[in-house]
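Hey, can you fold this one?
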Amino acid sequence: MNFEETRKVVEAAIQAHEHRHLNDVELTILRGSWEGLTYDEMAKGSQYEANYLKGDAGYRFWKLLSEVLGESVSKRNFRAVVERSQFSHKDATPTHSVNLASDFYYVERPPIESLCQEEILIPGALLRIKASPKMGKTELMSRLINYATNQGYRGVDLKLRLAEETDFENLDKFLQWFCSSITQMLELKLDNKVNEFWDQQLGNSKLKCMAYFEDYLLVDEDKSSLVLGLDDLDRVYQYPKIAGEFLGLLRTWHEKAKTRPIWERLRLILVHTKEYALLDINQSPFNAGIAIELPEFSLEQVKELAKRHKLNWDTTQVEQLMDMVGGHPYLVQSALEHITRWGMKLEELLQKAPTETGIYSDLLQEHLRNLQRDQQKYPKLDAALKHVVTGDYPVELELTLASKLDELGLVKWQGNAVEPRCKLYRLYFQERLKDIQ
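Sure. Predicted structure:
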């Protein structure tokens, strides 16, 4: 098994058990372990400290895998366990990851789903799904690709966070990784001819990439249209020399569908938390196609989700939970799962929620690390967040700081001002930032 096959097996197992995807720290540990790296080596290529990867995060991850795979799993034996797991990688769908268990707990946000389904069937479609972290963007994209494949289309769900640092050395190398990954995920029905195309085609790397699509991925009329979902598009923004060229290329493909029938066979789904601002308006994919912004759950939707978890809650109990976490899909789902799976009382959950002993401890620590990481580029970021979480009303901040806090998922907009995304974040960061001047 290669890493991509291993990841799919682990992802499917966690989805069936936890109804969620691998998070960033779990993916870091999984990839590093698969490559035979020590925790110190993993830390050098990530945002996490070695002690955290080896301690809390590693312990929780291997414990979780032991539960979902049915036998003891460690950094040393996980490859062998995955291969003989009951979650056979042969049954894992290569292009998307939706299972029956998660279907039951998925809450639709009308009319978003129906609008997206209609749009993705339009030749040359470009669909942009935008939301803060953990709002359900990836889940919606996976379901759209699942819907498209059920309509007879080919579908690829490409997570750009799976690209390694070396894949971003230059545009040429990135586009080769891009084409190779798509080919590999098309259920191995196509041979990987990237090297052949790159050797034989004239022109720069963008022209070679375009030729690979025109002459190989899209050309065969016996094959159905290709729905290409690009998750974690923001990952590319970290590499400005690549980002502008790549995003401009996506816009070009969408425009070509208006004049060249072959490009009608490509439908794009872009999943991101923010737009890339350093692009000419005529080259940006962010002012083309259809834009979808995911809202939080309403009270009625949270009540319906509680019902599916077999909780006979009245409006008061739903309001108590939402007073702490709002309608944030991930925070709501985590609370309901802990209450139903582990028998935790709502009162206890809410009391401990903003502390290091609560169910959100890992997520809150991750937010704190992200804030500290971005503090290097935005020196006033922590002070800005302190101003927000200690204020009684929405606060107007410098636009770059407000946008960065929104990108991190810590605040939400109220007109030109921002406020904490939920009471959970207000209480946690009031304590953590109390000494910030």
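Residues 86-101 have pLDDT under 50 and may be disordered. Let me know if you want another pass with a different chain boundary.
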